[in-house]
Design a protein that fits this description.
- There is one protein chain.
- The chain is mostly helical.
- It has one domain.
- The chain is 84% helix and 0% strand.
- Helix 1 crosses helix 3, helix 2 runs antiparallel to helix 3 and helix 2 crosses helix 5.
- The chain is globular and about 40 Å long.
- It starts with a helix and ends with a helix.
Length: 127
């Protein structure tokens, strides 16, 4: 990867992760499609890069929210009991599935999340 592409990805990561962490998201729903569609990376690489970027965003946001005493530690630990095995399984599946299937799965999840987000925002606008 040349230095220009690296710089562009770095800037995009910063631009995506800053507002995402402010509202409690990680930005992975934007990182992965951008890396696959614009930078033509294989899905496995895009997912791995996204996970590394999300780790920094998550740790930074968590520390900020913990200082403000806005973190429910019991609930967070309960989620971790369930999400750590899911992350391990997901990482393992990326080594087994071809890139085309991973891209399709990612696309389906993005469509579902988009539809749910639009439905929710329409619901709140009607209130």
């Amino acid at each position: 990867m040349d230095i220009f592409r690296f710089f562009i990805i770095f800037v995009l990561g910063f631009v995506i992760s800053t507002p995402s962490s402010m509202i409690g998201l990680t930005g992975g729903f934007l990182f992965v499609p951008i890396l696959i569609l614009i930078f033509q990376l294989p899905a496995q690489n895009a997912i791995a890069i996204s996970l590394v970027a999300i780790t920094g965003t998550t740790v930074s946001a968590t520390l900020g929210y913990m200082r403000q005493r806005r973190v429910d530690l019991k609930l967070g630990l309960l989620y971790d009991i369930l999400d750590v095995p899911g992350v391990v399984l997901g990482a393992y599946l990326t080594t087994l599935l071809p890139s085309s299937i991973l891209t399709a799965i990612c696309g389906v999840f993005l469509i579902i999340i988009s539809v749910l987000s639009v439905r929710r925002s329409i619901f709140f606008l009607g209130q």
